[in-house]
Amino acid sequence: MPQLLVVTGPPGSGKSTVTAALADRWEPSVLVEGDAFFGFLRRGAIPPWLPEAHTQNETTVLAASAAAGRFAAGGITVVYDGVIGPWFLPDFARATGLDVLDYVILMPPLETCLDRVTTRVGHGFTDLPATRHMYLDFARAVADGSPGHVLTDVPDDVTAVADTICAAMEAGASRVEVRR
User: Fold this and answer.
1) Is the model's pTM score more than 0.85?
2) Pfam families from the entry (predicted)?
């Protein structure tokens, strides 16, 4: 069965670090970095955290989800790294073309996310108000009952986070069926 694992959360939650470690656990595997698809926007790109970027963001994320689904349908384990809030998961999931996927939200404390966004090197996103806003969006969605698995007690050790995610997958706690 094709396998797609979506690891999401607000900026600074540790997605990029843990998804790289997770993708190295399977063979064959591919790491689809959602942010890379925003890099394809050549002219007229709107910063994705602004409200007026909604249509651009939707188009870009659906293109990334279609690519992730195609890799998975080809028998390659896919780890997706990107901001896919529960409010957008149904559209994302349908665009993959798959019947099921695994979905994990990383939710360390807000202060951790803000600190990571402030101190990370080589990442284009450093907007603290946008980080706070996206964190609160995720927090509201989690409080309303998010699908998949929510990891709020995020260990500091990357291997421990990856182990926790794999255990949730094995237990079926992160499994989401795609509704057409």
Assistant:
1) yes
2) AAA_33
